[in-house]
Amino acid sequence: MFELLGVPPQVLFGQLLLGLINGSFYALLSLGLAVIFGMLNVINFAHGALYMIGAFVAWFLLNKLGLGYWWALLLAPATVGLVGVIVEKTLLSRLYKLDHLYGLLLTFGLALIFEGAFRHQFGVSGQPYPIPDALKGGQNLGFMFLPNYRGWVVAASIVVCFGTWFAIERTRLGAYLRAATENPVLVQAFGINVPVMITLTYGFGVALAGLAGVLAAPIYQVSPLMGSNLIIVVFAVVVIGGMGSILGAIVTGLGLGLLEGLTKVFYPEASNIVVFVVMAIVLLIKPAGLFGRER
Amino acid sequence: MPDIQNSGAPMLEIKNLQAFYGESHVLHGVNLEVRQGEVVTLLGRNGAGKTTTMRSIMGIVGKRTGSITFQGRELIGMAQHKIPRLGIGYVPEERGIFSSLSVDENLVLPPVVKDGGMTVPQIYELFPNLQGRGTTQGTRLSGGEQQMLAIARILRTGATLILLDEPTEGLAPVIIEQIGVAVRKLKQRGFTIVLVEQNFRFASTIADRHYVMEEGHVVDMIHNDQLAQNMDKLHAYLGV
Asked: Percent of chain B at pLDDT above 90?
C-alpha cells in the first residue's frame, strides 16, 4: 500500500471528502449570508436556525405527510423562503433606518426563539432522516470509497452556488441586484420596486439555508441545534471571504472545508480552530476579506 | 408631438411645493410649469433648492407637500417606483454610474417604460465616445463619458421628460460643448428637458426659459430671448 506524505490515501481522501462536504454547507450558507448582507446590510444571525428549520420541514414532510426527499428538496426551501419573506416584511423592514446593529440583534433574537421552540418540542436529540433510495450505495474510485449521497451533496451545492453566482453577476436581474446594492435610491428612481427586491432577496438568501438543511438532513441528524453548531464557522467563512462577496463566499466556503479536512489528517488537534486562525490572519492582513472591497 | 407644444395644460406643473429633509424645511412654495417640448433651466446659487426640486419630482426627498402634476397626474403620494414609469427620466448630479456594472449593463439598466425610446445605435450616434466601451467597468470612464452614459441610459427608456441635474459640473469646456450639442439634438427630437445649471452661459445656449430660485422658492422667470435685457438682474440673483 503506497502512502502520500506518510498518510494512507484512504485516510487522506476520506478526510478531504468530509472536508469538501462540510465546505459545501459552508458555501451554501455563507452564500446566502453574502447575498443578504450585500443587499440589506443585515448580518443574518437567524441563518443557522433557518437551515435547521429547512431540515425539520423535510423531516415533517416525510413523517407527517409521507412526502419524500425530492419533494422536500423543493418544498423545504420554499417554506423557509416564505418564512424569510414574512420576517422581512413584518420585522426587518422596520429597522433599515436604524443602526445596522438592530438587524443583527433582531435576527439573533429570532434564532434563539426558533431554536428554543424546536428544542421545547423535540429535545436536543437528533431525529434520523433516511438517505433517499436513488442515492444509496456508493462508488469505489480505487483510491477511496465515495458514498453516492455525499457525492450528490457536493455536486448539488456546487451547481446551486455557481448558478447563483451566474444569476447575480451575468444576468439582467442580477444587474438590478448589484445596482440596488450600490445605490438603491437611484435604482428606485429608474422605476424598479426596490422594497420588493429586498424582500425577495432575503427570501432567496434564507431559502438557500433551507436547501442546505434538506441536503444535510440525511448526513447529520435533524436536530434543533444543528444550525448553531455550524453557523459560527459559517460567519468566520463570510469574514474571510469578504462581507457581501458572492464569489468569495463560495470559494472560501469550499476551500476552508478542504483545509479543515487536511488539518484533521495532519494535525487533528487543530482542526476545530483552523478556520478561526485563518480568520484572524486574514483580518490582520486584509481586513475587508480575501474577495471583499473596502466600503 | 410638436402640435401639442404650447397648447393646453403644461406637461409638468408644480404648485406651492414644500419639501423637507428630516427637520429642515428646504423648499418653501415652489411654483413652476414646463410645457411639452420645452427646455427649462433652474438657475440659482448653491443651496437655493434646485436639486431638491428635481428630487421632489422623483419622490426621493423625505417629505413634500403641495402639488406636482405630470401630464395631469399627481405625483405626491404616488409610489416612488411608479413615477419614472410615467415617462420621467432622472440624471442625478452625481451621475450615479454603477461601479459594479459594466458600461453596457449601466446603459440597459433602467427599464423601458414607454415605446419610442432611442435605440442603442442611435444613442452611440449621439455619444460616439461610448461606442466600443461596453465591457469597461462603468466608473472607469472619464467624468465626461460618465455624464454621457448617465444621459444615454435614460434615452433608451422612452421617457419624454428628462431631468438633468448639472450635466456640465466639473467638465472641460470641450466636453461641455459635446454635451450641449447632444442636449440640443434631444430637444430637436421632442424631448422635454428640465435642466439644473450653475453655468448659465451653457444654459442660455439651449434653454427656452429660465426659472431663478432663491432660498427654496422661484423668484423670477426669464425668457431666453429676454436674457440680454435681464443680465444685471440675473447677475444680482446669482451673485456672479
From this structure: 71
Tell me, yes or no, whether A224 lies in a domain.
Answer: yes
- What ipTM did this prediction achieve? 0.90
The domain ranges of chain B are 2-238
- Which residues in chain A touch residue B84, judged by CB atoms under 8 angstroms apart? 189-191
Q: Is residue A137 part of a domain?
A: no
φ, ψ dihedrals at A160, nearest 5°: -65, -45
The 10 Å Cβ neighbour count of residue A220 is 16
Q: Mutate which of A170, A186, A194 to test chain B, going by most B C-beta atoms within 10 A?
A: A186
Query: Do the domain assignments include residue A7?
Result: no
Q: What percent of chain B has pLDDT over 70?
A: 96
Point out which residues pair with B28 in neighbouring strands.
Answer: B18
Q: What is the pLDDT of residues A150-168, one digit of tens each?
A: 999 999 999 999 999 999 9
Q: Do B109 and A175 touch (CB under 8 A)?
A: yes
Question: In this structure, is residue A122 part of a structural domain?
Answer: yes
Average pLDDT over residues A200-219: 96
Range of the domain at A63: 25-129+148-285
The top-level CATH class assigned to B2-238 is alpha beta
State the total domains in chain A.
Answer: 1
- Contacts (Cβ under 8 Å, ≥6 apart) of A185: B60
Nearest to B96 among A176, A181, A186 (CB): A186
Nearest-5° angle of CA B22, CA B24, CA B25? 115
pLDDT category, A8, cuts 50, 70, 90?
A: confident
Across the interface, whether the CB atoms of A179 and B109 are under 8 A apart is answered yes
Tens of pLDDT along A172-195? 999 999 999 899 999 999 999 999
CA distance B144 to B164: 14
- Decide if B109 and A182 are in contact by the 8 Å CB cutoff: no
Find, in chain B, the residue whose alpha carbon is nearest to that of A185.
B60
